[in-house]
From TrEMBL:
GO terms for biological process: acetyl-CoA biosynthetic process; lipid metabolic process. Gene3D superfamilies: 3.30.300.30, N-terminal domain of ligase-like. Residues 600-679 form the AMP-binding enzyme C-terminal domain. Residues 138-547 form the AMP-dependent synthetase/ligase domain. The lineage of its organism: Eukaryota, Metazoa, Chordata, Craniata, Vertebrata. This is Propionate--CoA ligase. One of its GO terms (molecular function) is ATP binding. Residues 69-129 form the Acetyl-coenzyme A synthetase N-terminal domain. It catalyses: acetate + ATP + CoA = acetyl-CoA + AMP + diphosphate; propanoate + ATP + CoA = propanoyl-CoA + AMP + diphosphate. It comes from Cyprinus carpio (Common carp). Keywords: ATP-binding, Ligase, Lipid metabolism, Nucleotide-binding. Residues 1-55 are annotated as: Disordered.
Length: 719
């Protein structure tokens, strides 16, 4: 996925070639000291070529150079109270903080894990991202979103004034339905403005939103609704993804059926206590609007999802249950567009977002109001070097954390103008994304682009260079941001004008973030090292828990190395203190006792001129324990043959990493199984490599057909 920052009119000085300089020309590079400690085989030293902005492109940067970054970083770690108090000044507080900025325990041996930021303060994030812009910063007429539908004929400009009114209407409608502070609201919507309205409406009234990506199956939706005990589901009748029509309401109804089946015993026991609740007295949705029946509604919410609000986008024939379904337009009809925000404590929950990890039941990652607000706002401003006239586009879906943080909260907190895109990049033609750039910047070249972002997977140097040279025309900076649903915002990231870039590295920690590298025994490695990426202290945006499951929170992130937050990712820190993510630790390859990361083997494969993309997984091996099974996608018009295989085995691996990294199997992969957020599902590839046919839920895959193709083309030798 990419995040693009573009200006409406690029200054003439913006055109020119970004310079490449040896790192030695830069002063002291890193916030960490340098020494050598490397006991795991890894790739050879990366080339010492760094990239930094061309003159004139970042004359007004918030952080103008690396020294400025270092000074701010130092302040953020050595004087965190002052640092965050300065950031907090930008925001509106109903009640200012009284106690310490940050309190936490990261050590399971010392008691429960907790993180508290600005406890005692009261605010509202919706007020801060909307009302503050309209009333205090005079941005009411500024466009918040250029919404682009799936079809290029559908578009809408939404100003901050309009957004505030729509959000208030939705907030009032939710209140009429009985939703109150602390209630969970499930949102299963495509990338339409109503998605933003609903999430902000929840935030306004203190309800906790749980957005479920609209590509998930009914089972996944049901599981998430049940886990968070949501009372309301907001969905749409349907969505076009490219030329494919998806009947969302049908999936939503199936999910609710599943919920009902599982909730029956609970319903019955409560029903018997309340004479109003006979099966025939289930409220009609319209009736819910009458306050007299509000009590009944609220009690019903305690039982299960009973109201499903449906946005009519496509006028589809949808399954309709009179007892609980209501059209969005009917609900909003006549509702006031003013709504007093609910003033929330700093640590009140803001949202739950489920993240699956590679196996197991999804975890409801919980974020709270104030820390998330400050952190997403600050990272947005600095990482994209956002300025008032910029137009910004994040291509993610709001169903993922990237969309929560960098389509909704971060940009709006900065009063930014963003593109909100419903469709897919290749519909109706491959140049669709270029059209956005032209429409919203009024220029017909890419010369207005300044910052290109990437997130979600290790980007190998080959891909980085393509992005830099072809998309960014050697002028824009490629910002490789490492972070997780759990971290709330970027944690390792370059800052455009300040950080010299190395292709493939997420570079340095953001303000307040203190990474460390540990070995298997939990010993901290200094200087150049490779191992587990952990963080020693919280920053405001870190998750506060797994919803309803403190034990899982602690065991997943804190038990392995007491005193640290464990990301689950591996990393390498180079001699300049730059961090290189090497992939999920669970995906590591253990060949004859040597640990290899997926990223290093894949980067070596993609160096071959015929290879566009590669993914490597392990397969059990009688002698070596595990061996390497590689999937390679070739560039157009390249042929997969024996010579290529030999070259990949010999040059790519033996010579690059060492003989232990020689692949046992190489399979031609016309495509790789990826989620719609762009992550390679290595779990699926492992199963293909092992010829295991029971693949579980594949509904998040962008293109499930790829799996059949890969099965049919398995390496014959790997029976
Ligand atoms: C924001 C997001 C988190 C996992 C993370 C890591 C991988 C994210 C990365 C990256 C290498 C980067 N990841 N950014 N790997 N370089 N710049 O993607 O959140 O969906 O929770 O995924 O994605 O493995 O642990 P989420």
């Amino acid at each position: 996925m990419q995040i693009i920052r573009q200006t409406r009119a690029a200054p003439p000085s913006a055109v020119g070639s970004a310079a490449e300089q040896p790192l030695s020309q830069w002063k002291k590079m890193s916030p960490v000291s340098v020494s050598t400690n490397r006991d795991i085989p890894g790739p050879q030293e990366p080339e010492e070529k760094t990239y930094h902005p061309s003159n004139g492109l970042f004359t007004d940067a918030h952080v103008p150079d690396f020294d400025a970054y270092l000074a701010l970083y130092k302040k953020s770690t050595e004087e965190p109270e002052e640092f965050w108090a300065d950031v907090a000044q930008e925001f509106y507080w109903k009640k200012p903080p009284s106690g310490p900025m940050l309190q936490y325990n990261f050590d399971v041996n010392k008691g429960n894990i907790y993180i508290k930021f600005m406890e005692g303060a009261k605010t509202n994030i919706c007020y801060n991202v909307l009302d503050r812009n309209v009333h205090e910063r005079n941005l009411g007429e500024k466009v918040a979103y250029y919404w682009e539908g799936n079809s290029p004929d559908h578009h809408q400009n939404i100003t901050y004034n309009q957004l505030l009114r729509s959000v208030c209407r939705c907030a009032n409608a939710l209140k009429l339905l009985g939703v109150k502070k602390g209630d969970r609201v499930a949102i299963y919507l495509p990338m339409i403005p109503e998605l933003v309205y609903t999430m902000l409406a929840c935030a306004r009234i203190g309800a906790v939103h749980s957005i479920v990506f609209a590509g998930f199956s009914s089972e996944s939706l049901c599981e998430r609704i049940m886990d968070a005990q949501c009372n309301i589901l907001v969905t749409a009748d349907g969505v076009y993804r490219g030329d494919k029509l998806i009947n969302l309401k049908k999936i939503a109804s199936e999910a609710l059926e599943r919920c009902k089946e599982r909730y029956v015993p609970v319903c019955c026991s409560l029903l018997s206590e309340e004479p109003l609740f006979t099966s025939s007295s289930h409220p009609k949705c319209k009736i819910l609007l009458y306050p007299a029946l509000k009590l009944m509604t609220i009690l019903l919410f305690l039982l299960c999802v009973c109201v499903c609000v449906c946005v009519c986008v496509r006028a589809l024939q949808t399954p309709w249950d009179e007892s609980c379904d209501i059209w969005w337009d009917d609900l909003m009809d006549g509702v006031s567009d003013e709504c007093e925000p609910e003033w929330m404590d700093s640590e009140d929950p803001l949202f739950i977002l489920y993240t699956s990890g590679s196996t197991g039941k999804p975890k409801g990652v919980l974020h709270t109001v104030t820390g998330y607000m400050l952190y997403t706002s600050l990272t947005f401003k600095y990482v994209f070097d956002y300025h008032h006239d910029d137009v910004y586009w994040c291509t993610a879906d709001i169903g993922w954390i990237t969309g929560h943080s960098y389509i909704t909260y971060g940009p709006l907190a900065n009063g930014a103008t963003s593109v909100l895109f419903e469709g897919v990049p290749v519909y109706p033609h491959v140049a669709r994304t270029h059209t956005h750039t032209h429409t919203h910047t009024h220029t017909h070249t890419h010369s207005c682009l300044r910052v290109l972002g990437t997130v979600g997977e290790p980007i190998n140097p080959e891909a980085w260079l393509w992005y830099y040279e072809v998309v960014g025309q050697q002028r824009c900076l490629v910002i490789d941001t490492f972070w997780q649903t759990e971290t709330g915002g970027h944690v390792l990231t370059p800052l455009p004008a300040a950080t010299p870039l190395k292709p493939g590295s997420a570079t340095c920690p953001f303000f307040g973030v203190q990474p460390a590298v540990l070995n298997e025994h939990g010993e901290e490695l200094e200087g150049e090292a490779e191992g587990y990426l952990v963080f020693r202290k919280p920053w405001p945006g870190i998750m506060r828990g797994v919803y309803g499951n403190q034990e899982r929170f602690e065991s997943t992130y804190f038990r392995k190395f007491p005193g640290f937050y464990v990301t689950g990712d591996g990393c390498r820190r180079d001699k300049d203190g730059y961090y290189w993510i090497t992939g999920r630790i669970d995906d590591m390859l253990n060949v004859s006792g040597h640990l290899l990361s997926t990223a290093e083997v894949e980067a070596a494969l993609t160096e071959h001129p015929s290879v566009a993309e590669a993914a490597v997984v392990s397969r059990p091996h009688a002698v070596k324990g595990e061996c390497l099974y590689c999937f390679v996608t070739l560039k157009d018009h390249k042929e997969f043959n024996r010579t290529l295989m030999e070259e990949l085995k010999r040059k790519g691996q033996r010579e690059k990493i060492g003989p232990i990294a020689t692949p046992d199997f190489i399979q031609n992969a016309p495509g790789l199984p990826k989620t719609r957020s762009g992550k390679i599902m290595r779990r699926v590839l492992r199963q293909i490599a092992r010829n295991e046919k029971d693949l579980g839920d594949l509904s998040t895959l962008a293109d499930p057909k790829v799996v059949e193709v890969l099965f049919s083309q398995r390496c014959e030798a790997a029976a």
